């Protein structure tokens, strides 16, 4: 099974050259940055643990990845949500559908305040210290590639939710790591960084305007289709569209033409199934 060492591919987008780290290709079931963040739990044994508990949204990529992890490790999986939309209950799809097929026990209720010692609690979106193990491996893959290709002036970009992946990449890489806030705003992201590390934070690129996570924007749909057309790569809807808007603008604002740019594709493509339906309904009818 291939849970590490994804390929790096050269692409041209709007007449600019970029490299893309294809973490979406790691493993069909356990891929993207959740595979990196939960790698610690995949490779270690927890003989006293019978169940994993987490919480978040009913369409989350982390939820699906945890359901895969629990299936691989023979653990039970309780997942707490505030609310499951009735259309989703009636027509399960995307992360929700596949997590249920992996025997996720989804609970619409508040998270318990106490867990017994056979339960392992994983915070929302995998924002935890243990995530650093898998992200260090990702950083080492990038370092090896840069050395082999004699690249010194590398800039790395990836969009953030909790910021955990960007933060640990910066910790383990000698190159500048840039990111943008997709879930909260820039202040939220800075606070998230501080929870895990005091300093050496990634550079946050300011967004042109405020976007709300999970909402539909015409410019997101357009850049998604354009990326697909020009690079033949499918990127995720929730993070990558805003990510590419920020990254492209940042790149075009640099006068220095000597840098090499690497974008990290963090997977999340199962979540696209429901997003694509919503986009088609809103903009293609
Ligand atoms: C979870 C996720 C992110 C955000 O990762 P953080 O480490 O929380 O910043 C970005 N892209 C995709 C596709 C994800 O699934």
UniProtKB/TrEMBL annotation:
Required cofactor(s): pyridoxal 5'-phosphate
User: Per UniProt, which keywords does this protein have?
Assistant: Hydrolase, Pyridoxal phosphate
InterPro entries registered for this protein in UniProt: ACCD_DCysDesulf (IPR027278), TrpB-like_PALP_sf (IPR036052)
Residue numbers annotated as active site:
60 (nucleophile)
User: What's one GO MF term for it?
Assistant: D-cysteine desulfhydrase activity
Q: Which residues carry this modification: N6-(pyridoxal phosphate)lysine?
A: 34
Q: Does the keyword ATP-binding apply?
A: no
Annotated EC: 3.5.99.7
Which protein family is named in the record? Belongs to the ACC deaminase/D-cysteine desulfhydrase family.
What this protein is called in its record is 1-aminocyclopropane-1-carboxylate deaminase
Q: Which organism is it from?
A: Arcobacter venerupis
